[in-house]
Amino acid sequence: MSWEAIIVICTIVIMLICLMKEVARPDFIVFCALAFLMFTGILAPADALIGFSNEGMLTVGLLFIVAGAVQQSGVLNQLVYSALGKKDGSSSMIPRMMVPVSGLSAFLNNTPIVVMFTPVIKDWCKKHNVAPSKFLIPLSYAAIFGGTLTLIGTSTNLIIHGLMLDQDMAGFSMFQLTAVSLPACILGILYLSTVGYKLLPVRKSSEESFTEHAKEYLAQSRITEASPLIGKTIEEAGLRNLKGLYLIEVISGTERIAPVPGYYQLKEKDRLIFTGLLSTIVELHQVKGLRVETGTDIELDELSNGRAVLNEVVIPSQSPLAYSTLKENQFRSRFQAGVVAVHRAQSRIQNKVGDIVLKPGDTLLLLSDREFAEKHKESKLFYLMNTTDQNELVPQKKSLIALFTLVGMILLASTNVLSMFMSAMLAVIVLILTKTITLEGAKNYVHFNVLILIACSIGIGAALQQTGAAEFIATYLVSWTAGVGIIGTIAAVYILTNIFTEVITNNAAAVLMFPIALASAGQVGIDPMGLFVTIAIAASASFITPIGYQTNLIVYGPGGYKFTDYIKVGLPLTFMYMIVTVTMVHLIWV
Question: Where does the sequence pass through the membrane (predicted)?
Fold first, then answer.
């Protein structure tokens, strides 16, 4: 093995450790790894940047726009409401929800689908007195199932497709993955409707936990008569930088101010609502002219009267807000919203709100004005867990154009009239020319950090292949499985890909495994297409942890889940998916 291959392998190992430890955003970590390989001369700039011209990566960017146009339609919400129906929350509701969600995820980006349907399902569960934890993991898994069904179901499939085209191979057809993934999908739905449903926990949602424990982190005080604070601003009164408390609302007569600007002038009898560490409430006792009302019970509903409303948001893994404090992000002034509490792994973080370092999967309870949801419903910084207001949906004509454009794109690509890339490009042009979306709106739908992660991962994959590191790893992989033959090689590729996707990201896992699978196929003498199908499904089949796949992370907080819940429900499902995939790939491509 050459010294270049050794450096590449060491770089990838360090990158994987950094990704697992979440030392920074995934796209930045992978970018730094690629830059290092370029600076050391292992990769020429042209080779390092090859991912930025990869057809699969560019197709993903175009499909973000197409999916965004379709998902602003209320048709999708109504479909899930109709699917759930008005019956009770028994396990029979699981397939009624999972089948349409899987169907939609086969053709649309599954992350926005889960974001859109999580509040819909929570609302349905609340009406039917069912724990959302019985439905939200199945929602995430249904989206994952659907993503493996078609070429455009998830970005992972398109990335592998693009890498195959770079190797002068034919690439995936629209439904090539279906022969393997459909049996696995059906088995998965049956499992979650029976055994899996019984394994699903009954947990309190983040919303219920916030409400139930409000008395533990909310406190209020009043401005007394003739108080020296009257006429002073919040800043002048020293109420902005308390040690452990955070001012989220001022109630002045019938007026409610939230978030509270530093220039607000205090008035007699103003009620001040604080959140944070109530153990530091002695700070308020030391402020002259401020009476702390320790015996008063404060309910969350009381905060959201008038113009102030409560919103729940989830921090995604690629968010620029992650790994920094709320104060560093200037959250209050930037979004005009006060953070009431932060929920992580089934519990509220016991700390001053402004000093909390946000992590992917955190659920934030916000107090804001009524325009907050409309302003930030398309935000890439956080996912809004509020039910869509039907009055704010786009006109029916635009919704129909978006849906027909999607269908037309699928038909053109599946009948090979145009390539997937050309079909997606044509679809975007149609959406813009018909004014279904604007150029500015199209830009907002694209997740550039995801594209950067994909492009940089492709560059690292190129380094694996060019230096012979992929061939070296493949030799060991094939020798380890020699005793069980080709089926052992397929199983080893699946297991290794699945481990990568659970601890890093599905896209990076697929790109790193591609050159290893290509080399392995050459050494055992089989069609590499079978191993590429294996990678595509294994990279998406992330069921054991909440961090391996974005949809699992989205439902983590709102469902009130523990990390172990995913292991308990997902481990049997992971074995089922592996057995079906390895068996079908062996039957079809070997």
Answer: 5-22, 28-50, 57-77, 97-118, 139-160, 180-200, 400-433, 445-464, 476-497, 503-522, 529-549, 569-589
